[in-house]
Amino acid sequence: xxxxxxxxxxxxxxxxxxxxxxxxxxxxxxxxxxxxxxxxxxxxxxxxxxxxxxxxxxxxxxxxxxxxxxxxxxxxxxxxxxxxxxxxxxxxxxxxxxxxxxxxxxxxxxxxxxxxxxxxxxxxxxxxxxxxxxxxxxxxxxxxxx
Length: 146
Prior knowledge:
This protein is α+β, with helices and mostly antiparallel strands. The chain has one domain. The protein has three helices and five strands; from the N terminus they run αββαβαββ. It has a five-stranded mixed β-sheet with strand order 3-2-1-5-4. Strand 2, helix 2 (about 55-65) and strand 3 (about 75-80) form a beta-alpha-beta unit. It is globular.
């Protein structure tokens, strides 16, 4: 598993340096609960198109093939999302709540009805993403004067 994580980090670096997908908001490996040793790859990025252009998917697959010598047998499905989509915001809220930006997370509660058994966060950067959370940096202390 460590080798897969290391190679996915290399892929993330390649995405970031080439910039075709824009800023990577979330790059995660999600364990399938119904299939042994099969994983979803989830990517949320700035420049991905709402209806997932075929070009973006081909680009991602080619980068993965290059890093993994064409052996992508551990991947069940590749999921590409625009940064503003609800699933990305659900991950952002859940990870922000538990103060995790990278690494393995067990039993991640995305929504009241959805819990991810195991997810490996390769990279995340939710800065500037509107999560609908209160902005505690603007809270003023002391009594208000009217």
